[in-house]
């Protein structure tokens, strides 16, 4: 009898430690610990409130409605042609992981990041889900030695991240980072499998017939919110930014700009931004913390902010996940 009572007590304690969470507009909600080995590989399910992680050809999920740290099976995800092609040889590279999986609205295609080893060397794969086959990917080409550089983080000329489908699923954009520290956005016409580049640009996000992004003026050392008309190929600078940008992201209906200190709502019609949140309060409330990753997702017509914080506690670093609902102030 005593043993049974102890088991009941342990079960109650376990449930109380992983209770259903409630999100707030005003403060961060604790959502559990994050394994530091995987913090840069996790992504979000855009249809249900789940955190996702690809591992051993399976997608694992973890509910965002609980602060329980455990992962469970979500689905199989193993493309038949699971490899990365090189541009300068017939050698095929076997990816270490798949990250940031996105789907077209009709669920015919998915796009994702293929990572080679545990390095920064990545490319984008476009998969036909009915064939379970990668039908397009950017081939990787080894770069020549960079003058005066002792250490190399990139083995290839370009690496590709952050796949984004256009509203009508005709185009797939992504960020491209060059071994000489140059940035650009590449826009792929999916049906034609032809692409065009926007130089000195990062963080693509589509709205209607336009692509919005962060425009980099290296000469003047300035950044701008800009737009690009995909049909006419005309680029327009909208607003200068005086802060370092961490994220520029469109959710279901809204575009957000995240900097090191603030979060803004971007009004594409008024061509201006509104400050909706600062990170000062977070840094004051959660001592010895550093923001490692920022996510903004839409669930049930609400926009949520998620942060992975690296926190120094008792002389060791712990990675924790927090979330809150964003309150939008429109112009």
Number of strands: 26
Shape: globular
> What is the share of helical residues?
under 10%
CATH topology of the domain at 79-242: Lipocalin
Helix and strand element order: HEEEEEEEEEEEEEEEEEEEEEEEHEEE
Query: CATH architecture of the domain at 79-242, please?
Result: Beta Barrel
CATH classification, class level of the domain at 79-242: Mainly Beta
Low-confidence stretches: 1-17
Average the pLDDT over all residues and give the rounded result: 89
Query: Roughly how many Å apart are the termini?
Result: 65 Å
Radius of gyration: 21 Å
Please summarize the sheet with the most strands.
Answer: 4 strands, antiparallel
Structural classification: mainly beta
Percentage of residues in strands: over 45%
Instruction: Work out the helix count.
Output: 2
How do the strands of the widest beta sheet line up side by side? 1-26-25-24
Topology:
Blueprint: H1 2-17, E1 29-34, E2 43-45, E3 50-55, E4 58-63, E5 72-76, E6 84-85, E7 92-93, E8 97-103, E9 109-115, E10 122-128, E11 133-137, E12 158-165, E13 171-178, E14 183-189, E15 194-199, E16 201-207, E17 210-217, E18 222-229, E19 235-241, E20 245-250, E21 255-259, E22 262-267, E23 272-278, H2 280-285, E24 289-299, E25 302-313, E26 316-325
Antiparallel strand pairs: 1-26, 2-3, 3-4, 4-5, 6-7, 8-9, 9-10, 10-11, 12-13, 13-14, 14-15, 16-17, 17-18, 18-19, 20-21, 21-22, 22-23, 24-25, 25-26
Please sum up the structure shown.
This protein has two helices and 26 strands.
